[in-house]
Design a protein that fits this description.
Protein name: Por secretion system C-terminal sorting domain-containing protein
Pfam families: Por_Secre_tail (PF18962)
Strand content: 35-45%
Strand order of the largest sheet: 3-60-59-58
Shape: globular
Number of strands: 67
Radius of gyration: 29 Å
Organism: Aquimarina amphilecti
Helix content: under 10%
InterPro entries: Secre_tail, WD40/YVTN_repeat-like_dom_sf
Keywords: Membrane, Signal, Transmembrane, Transmembrane helix
CATH topology of the largest domain: Methylamine Dehydrogenase, Chain H
Oligomer: single chain
């Protein structure tokens, strides 16, 4: 009998300005791969964006995610559908990893990284019990919890794959003898495309570890329905542990709450869902902060014990913070009378800073030290003193706002907004100086001074090493880094080694069978590529472009093997030959810019100019001025997906075009015809955003279209796609409550398999009309949002892009038994009743060797569905099987016998 392969266990609203990197890099020739080339792009002057423009930019990112999910009939995201999706996904994962699991495809899943680049990280903590400071726990906002014991040389994901962990805050119990207890809080209310306005995933309360972060369990008192904002623990800003009582404090749900191990008590209530923050001294004095937008509770509060007796010690009234949003606080470890309050401001700067001295009950305004870097060449009209979101200090509405104090110096302060800054003596130094984020006030390039690795803008965590106060760790939208904060020029070390936390929108693979090159466009982390022969491994990637990554493609239409990529809101580029911008003149696109390259005919490139379709049959030579404008596919409706038929181009070739209204169109001979030949082939009753279209690479009649919205029919398949009017069949079955994000069809060894990426993992079926979908790679991909799928039939590899845990790759094999593997049905066993409803009783014949008998149930096509050991009652529960015919095989040390049975 054929044995299944062992799966290899390899362990979203942001605000971002366009950060265009001025050089591409990749290898010139896949066959030789002996050199790299760099194509310089023309530097551009940056236009300063107003706060209103930046606010709109923020909204576009979360609106992209919201539009993918909203029920088009109600205008709302149905929480009951999301709850059902979560329950079904957990049930399927439980069955998949159990002994009697139904087997999905024979596929080997591996990580494709990036293993050297990190994603959005809001919290990290150095283990106080490790004198080497090598044990660190960090959290990705849509990726889970990771732990390192070698100082970031490698990381292990320690949160489970059967949940979605939007980690925002982490804390270790500081009490002696209790340092094994850790907590993390979940749910980000601002900045996450995977949570804003309920768009995808809220938090799931607070989780606790009692074994130093190796395993985690949810605190039952904070449990909630993750998909519905029904709990004060859906959004977590800060958690802290009292150093003497061990009580857990949480800034959540517009209040400061305290947990004594049994009961939660509201210590302070803001009267609304406002930002909050916490800091506790070593003696147990609790400082709490509420947003400046809260008229009655804004400012900083203090309690000598943390149990009642809170007094407001600072506000917009006294001493006059001028805060219009988030406030964060930090205590100076070397002098705990000193506390800093860093806040969103409506004053001269976007942020203000105040210093509290508890011994004198007084505040000092330190806002005059906020960074506002001078123009280094004021006489040169090509330089600009202020780059929007870069200089002067920018905090993006409080999305990135952090303050901390050097453990041995109360005047040495670090702050983070878009950039990281330090001031070594706040009482005498005139201004904070840049130490991370963007490289300078003249560029949106990444900071990489002092011979260090590239740092990343959008700073969320700044933590000093408790054992070496000169060392500073950062958590940013680019993961985890380490530096000597006292150096004259601070140089960062990249610690993102298998810290797999990237949020991809789109991925693509090199069509050449022998190539391992892959490319992906990621939220706020630009475009990355890896898999070059010169790369150290398959997971190491290099950054190809900045901004928000969008659609991507790799072409074999030219010997230079060009990359195609872009940034948000419409701009696209080709890196060779004659690299540069190739955006169609006058065109704009949706926020996640979309274009599509025919994988069989790489000369064919199509650009979605919102509702207008542009095309070229010369992708390697096209310029902004040489596209063909075909006009609007349907006026006012954005083009969201395109897929071409496979094979050499001919007049029989076709192009599917999916819109954000549910409409699906087909254009035959798409490189030669106009939209007057366009045919509406929308499946009956379809609505919502077309999220995926796939065509069988060996049969252009077999196709699938998927929809991402809740409350709609989300999967349709056809077997006559080449017909003038294809006939569509609903194929959602047990995924009827799921948000479907991507689609692919594969064929290996004659077995056709359908894949769909969902908001909770990857699923497949060989017959989705008649057989339920099965979860794939539960131990690797788990419940990650599978945002993109790219299949390469030349080597049967499926590239999987997730929005939170980077890329994976599956090497596919047929799961259908070969002729020699087929059970011997002639040499049959006896079982009753046939047909059966729930239980099959097996008569064990004398010819079997005594002892345990293994059994296996196959579909009639030979796919293994379940297996186990025959129990003492000689009964097999088949209640979980759908109606139909099946093969039961008994296996002993001496022989195998089989029988066909029917399930009613």
């Amino acid at each position: 009998m054929k044995k299944g392969k062992l799966l290899i266990p390899i362990s979203v609203v942001l605000i971002s300005l366009v950060a265009l990197v001025t050089y591409f890099n990749k290898e010139q020739d896949i066959k030789n791969q002996t050199s790299k080339k760099f194509v310089s792009l023309k530097k551009e002057k940056k236009k300063k964006k107003t706060m209103e423009e930046r606010r709109r930019f923020t909204e576009e990112r979360w609106k992209h995610e919201f539009d993918l999910q909203v029920n088009p009939n109600t205008g709302k995201i149905p929480q009951e559908e999301k709850e059902k999706e979560a329950l079904f996904a957990r049930d399927m994962m439980s069955k998949s990893i159990s002994k009697n699991a139904k087997r999905a495809s024979d596929a080997t899943f591996i990580s494709r990284g990036p293993s050297n680049l990190g994603g959005r990280t809001r919290s990290l903590v150095i283990d106080r019990t490790d004198a080497t400071s090598n044990t660190i726990i960090a959290g990705g906002v849509s990726s889970g919890v990771f732990r390192t014991t070698d100082g970031g040389a490698s990381w292990t994901k320690v949160s489970s794959n059967n949940e979605i962990h939007n980690v925002t805050t982490i804390v270790q119990d500081p009490r002696s003898g209790f340092e094994n207890i850790w907590y993390y809080g979940t749910g980000e209310s601002q900045g996450n495309s995977a949570s804003a306005s309920g768009a995808t995933f809220l938090g799931q309360g607070i989780w606790q570890s009692t074994d130093s972060g190796l395993t985690w369990n949810q605190l039952p008192s904070t449990a909630s329905v993750q998909e519905e904002s029904d709990s004060p623990f859906d959004f977590m800003y800060k958690i802290a542990v009292h150093p003497t009582t061990g009580d857990l404090y949480a800034g959540a749900g517009g209040a400061i709450r305290r947990f004594d191990g049994t009961t939660w008590t509201v210590e302070l209530d803001s009267g609304g869902n406002f930002f909050s923050d916490l800091a506790i001294t070593s003696t147990g004095i609790v400082y709490a902060a509420f947003s400046g937008s809260s008229a009655t509770t804004n400012g900083v509060w203090q309690s000598p014990t943390g149990v009642g007796s809170y007094t407001r010690i600072g506000s917009n009234t006294t001493p006059g913070f001028g805060s219009n949003g988030r406030i964060v606080v930090a205590v100076a470890p070397s002098n705990e009378d000193v506390v800093y309050a860093f806040h969103s401001s409506n004053g001269t700067f976007e942020a203000g800073l105040w210093q509290w001295n508890d011994s004198s009950d007084s505040w000092v305004d330190r806002t005059n030290t906020m960074p506002d870097e001078p123009d280094p060449d004021p006489g040169n009209p090509d330089t600009v003193a202020d780059l929007a979101g870069n200089d002067p200090i920018a905090i993006q509405g409080g999305y990135d706002l952090v303050v901390n104090v050097k453990p041995d110096n109360e005047n040495f302060v670090v702050i983070g907004g878009t950039n990281a800054y330090k001031i070594e003596n706040i009482t005498t130094d005139p201004m904070f100086v840049r130490i991370g984020g963007y490289v300078s006030n003249q560029s949106y390039g990444l900071y990489n001074l002092g011979g260090g690795d590239s740092h990343h803008p959008d700073i969320h965590a700044l933590e000093f090493d408790p054992n070496n106060p000169d060392i500073l760790f950062s958590g940013t939208d680019g993961g985890v880094h380490r530096a000597d904060a006292t150096a004259a020029i601070v140089a960062w070390t990249n610690l993102n080694n298998n810290y797999q936390t990237y949020q991809y929108y789109n991925v693509a693979t090199d069509p050449e069978a022998s190539s391992n090159i892959v490319i992906g466009g990621a939220q706020d982390n630009g475009t990355t590529a890896g898999g070059f022969d010169a790369s150290p491994d398959l997971t190491t990637m290099s950054t190809q472009f900045g901004g928000d990554g969008v659609a991507v493609a790799i072409s074999r239409d030219n010997d230079c093997v060009p990359f195609f990529l872009g940034v948000q809101n419409g701009r696209i580029f080709r890196d060779c030959p004659d690299g540069g911008e190739i955006t169609p003149t006058g065109a704009t696109s949706q926020f996640v810019t979309y274009f599509y390259m025919d994988p069989s005919n790489n000369n064919a490139l199509y650009y979605a100019g919102r509702d207008i379709l542009y095309r070229t049959d010369a992708s390697s030579a096209v310029t902004s001025a040489t596209w063909t404008d075909l006009g609007a596919v349907r006026s006012g409706e954005n083009i969201r997906q395109m897929v071409a038929s496979w094979g050499a181009y001919s007049t029989d070739s076709y192009l599917f075009i999916g819109l954000d209204s549910g409409s699906l169109f087909k254009l035959n001979d798409p490189l030669n015809r106009t939209l007057s030949s366009l045919r509406n082939v929308t499946p009956p009753g379809a609505s919502g955003v077309v999220s995926g279209i796939a065509v069988n690479p060996n049969n252009n009649d077999i196709a699938m279209v998927t929809y991402s919205n809740y409350g709609v029919t989300n999967i349709f398949v056809t077997t006559n796609a080449t017909a003038g009017r294809p006939t569509w069949t609903v194929a959602e079955r047990n995924l009827d409550a799921f948000s479907i994000r991507s689609a692919a069809i594969t064929e290996v060894g004659g077995e056709v398999r359908y894949f769909v990426g969902t908001a909770r993992g990857l699923y497949s079926s060989t017959d989705p009309v008649n057989e339920d979908w099965e979860i794939e790679a539960p131990n690797q991909i788990g419940f990650a949002v599978v945002s993109a799928l790219a299949y390469k039939p030349s080597n049967n590899k499926l590239l999987i892009g997730t929005h939170g845990n980077g890329m994976y790759e599956a090497t596919l094999e047929t799961s259908t038994l070969s002729v020699v593997d087929q059970p011997n049905i002639v040499n049959s066993i006896k079982a009753w009743p046939i047909p059966t409803n729930n239980v099959l009783n097996v008569v064990v014949e004398n010819s079997f060797v005594e002892g345990d008998l293994d059994y296996t149930v196959f579909s009639i096509t030979g796919k293994q569905l379940k297996n186990g050991v025959l129990n003492s009652n000689k009964q097999i529960n088949v209640n979980d099987l759908a109606q139909g015919n099946y093969i039961l095989q008994l296996n002993s040390a001496s022989e195998q016998k089989a029988i066909v049975f029917n399930k009613k």
